[in-house]
Amino acid sequence: MAAAIAGSGVVLGTYEFAQFVIESHERRAWVSNWGEAARELYEVEGSADEAGELLKRAEEVAQQDVDVVKLGAYIDGMRTVERLVNLDRPFDASDLDAWGRALGQAVMLERVDSSSPDGPLLQGQLQLAIKEYDRAKDLQSRERELERRTGGRSPFSAWRLANLHLKRRAQHIERGDEEAAR
After folding, report:
1. N or C: which end of the chain has fewer CB within 10 A?
2. Residue in 153, 172, 108, 161 with CA at minimum distance from that of residue 136
3. DSSP summary character for residue 117
4. How wide is the angle at C-alpha 133 spanned by C-alphas 131 and 137, nearest 5°?
5. How many C-beta neighbours within 10 Å does residue 176 have?
6. Tens digits of per-residue pLDDT, 88-146?
């Protein structure tokens, strides 16, 4: 009788453990899918708000998931870049604060995952927003090297790099340096 009770306890424990493993796997799959969809919505469709909504859902399921936090920081930082680049007035104190927070996110991204191109890409775009074209170029070179190591270039980062070259070219033309603009 005692052996039967012990055996049923082992079976029940094994069943509960298997159920936990399956639920954990399903949760990770959901979070991963939401993260991939959020990145695609942002980089392909340009929908930062919708991407943010997907990340909120992912955070509800897996609080403090590292990949969700990193992607959220990246998208929030890029949202700041877009806002600053499109201003039709000089930066004010709140703009500089937002720039500083986004730069902090970019540095965090690079420290947490130094093999990801997201940190240097965001840093380069932030430098571009404040018209620091040479620093932006250096950061974009670092980002390109990381992309080569990880298997290729995303169309989003290629577009961002083209934008940098156009801005640098415009700066050289504005200065009257036609040779450097080529």
Report:
1. N
2. 161
3. S
4. 145
5. 8
6. 889 999 999 999 999 999 999 999 988 888 899 899 989 988 988 888 888 888 887 87
CA distance 151 to 22: 31
**Identity (one letter) of the amino acid at 101?**
R
What count of Cα atoms within 13 Å lies in the side-chain half-sphere of residue 180?
A: 12
Tokens matching residue 178: 């036609």
**What is the number of residues in the chain?**
182
Q: With 0.85 as the threshold, say if the pTM is over it.
A: no
How many whole angstroms separate alpha carbon 140 and alpha carbon 125? 8
Joined together, the tokens standing for residue 72 give 């959220």
Whether residue 71 contacts residue 38, with contact meaning beta carbons closer than 8 Å, is answered with yes
- Best CA proximity match to 154, nearest among 33, 38, 146: 146
